[in-house]
Design a protein that fits this description.
Blueprint: H1 2-17, H2 22-33, H3 38-44, H4 51-90, H5 99-104, H6 113-127, E1 131-132, E2 138-140, H7 141-144, E3 176-178, H8 184-191, E4 197-206, E5 218-228, H9 233-248, E6 254-258, E7 264-273, E8 290-292, E9 296-299, H10 301-306, E10 315-322, H11 323-331, H12 344-347
Parallel strand pairs: 1-4
Antiparallel strand pairs: 2-3, 4-5, 5-10, 6-7, 7-8, 7-9, 9-10
Helix pairs in contact: 1-4, 2-4, 6-11
Bound molecules: adenosine-5'-[phenylalaninyl-phosphate].
């Protein structure tokens, strides 16, 4: 009987080799392992075997059944793989946007002007030794306000109309909100490094305000911070001038005037001569000829303390560049809402990949 089982197994091996359809494999399997299959038929004569023969035949029959199952499983998966490969070779998808795609269709993608300007600004700051940081859009009131010297009852909270979440407070008892400015990253950045340091943090911010030619509800800022010993307003002005010269590649008129932000002291507003109307007055600059672009100042001691830095030993400057407005000034865009419109006629005017 053992010989018969071995013979059946060898025959099975030879037959399965020749098959290439899953249904044929399953039918072959049942012709060997099914109730009336070859192996089952051989085992029917087990009743005539002696107890010693049975001890030998039983395990051998199980072994052969298992081998047949294994061969069937392998064959089925080989067939499936072959089918997938055949499909792939017939339906090739070019995911690389290569010349072939470009040749067929000239409307291929390009970078959004905001991305172009952000990359340019990041490169300039990286070349001046700044790190680039990121932070969460959903923040706690601690990072958006309190740590920036704006406690709960401070009127400055009304300067930025805030989208609040109705959900549960954070474990520290803080309400959640959509960050209204990238200044949230000032304290996060300070908490995770030791002075001296310098970093920028570009990102999306959210304000519940009415839109017009120069205001959006969802827009981009780029925060910057430098902390060390004996940092002065002159250092601040140097970096601000440097960045604008690099971006515009020409002299642009700017003006510095006092500005109030609870997290800096002294604070400044840096305005740029409106590049859309050359200062004559338009809807972007609200007919005044100047656009608020880059508020900045020397970091308030309370903010340094919130970031774990001793204000007796260190000081620094911070700024919050309005990235969308910078894009508008660079390209002469007369309405901020074009940037988020998704209108291809607008987007396709900018550089291609
Ligand atoms: C702030 O958000 C401060 N966090 C900036 C700052 C950082 C000051 C560090 C001092 C030190 P402000 O609300 O002015 O400030 O916004 C900063 C810039 O973002 C503005 O100058 C403007 O360029 C841009 N901005 C403000 N509101 C809008 C808006 N609704 N749409 C588009 N850009 C805006």
């Amino acid at each position: 009987m053992i010989d018969k089982l071995n013979e059946a197994y060898e025959k099975f091996q030879a037959e399965i080799e020749t098959l290439s359809a899953q249904a044929d494999v399953l039918s072959l399997k049942s012709s060997y392992l099914g109730k009336k299959g070859a192996v089952s038929e051989i085992l029917k004569s087990l009743k005539d075997a002696t107890p010693e023969e049975r001890k030998e035949i039983g395990p051998k029959a199980n072994e052969i059944k298992q081998e047949i199952e294994k061969l069937v499983a392998k064959k089925l998966s080989d067939i499936e793989l072959a089918q997938i490969n055949e499909k792939l070779s017939k339906n090739k998808i070019d995911i690389t946007f290569t010349d072939a795609v470009k040749a067929k269709n000239n409307n291929h993608g390009g970078f959004h002007p905001r991305t172009l300007v952000q990359q340019e600004v990041e490169d300039i700051f990286l070349s001046m030794g700044f790190e680039v940081l990121d932070g969460p859009h959903i923040e706690t009131e601690f990072y958006n306000f309190e740590a920036l010297n704006i406690p709960g009852d401070h009127p400055a909270r009304d300067m930025q109309d805030t989208f609040w979440f109705k959900d549960e407070k954070s474990p520290e008892g803080n309400k959640h909100l959509l960050r209204t400015h990238t200044s949230t990253i000032q304290v996060r950045g300070m908490q995770s490094r030791k002075p001296p340091f310098r970093f920028i943090a570009p990102g999306t911010v959210f304000r519940c305000e009415r839109t017009d030619a120069s205001h959006e509800m969802v827009f981009q800022q780029l925060e910057g911070m430098m902390v060390g010993k004996d940092i002065s307003v002159s250092n601040l002005i140097y970096f601000m001038k440097e960045i604008l010269t690099e971006i515009f590649k020409k002299d642009v008129e700017v003006r510095l005037r006092p500005g109030y932000f609870p997290f800096v002291e002294p604070g400044f507003e840096l305005d740029i001569k409106c590049q859309v109307c050359s200062g004559k007055g338009c809807s972007v600059c609200k007919q005044v000829g100047w656009v608020e672009l880059l508020p900045c100042g020397m970091v308030h001691p309370n903010v340094l303390r919130a970031g774990g830095i001793d204000p007796e030993e260190y000081n620094g400057f911070a700024f919050g560049l309005g990235l969308d407005r910078l894009v508008m000034m660079k390209y002469g865009i007369d309405d901020i809402r074009h940037l988020q419109s998704g209108d291809l006629r607008f987007n396709s005017q900018f550089k291609e990949y």
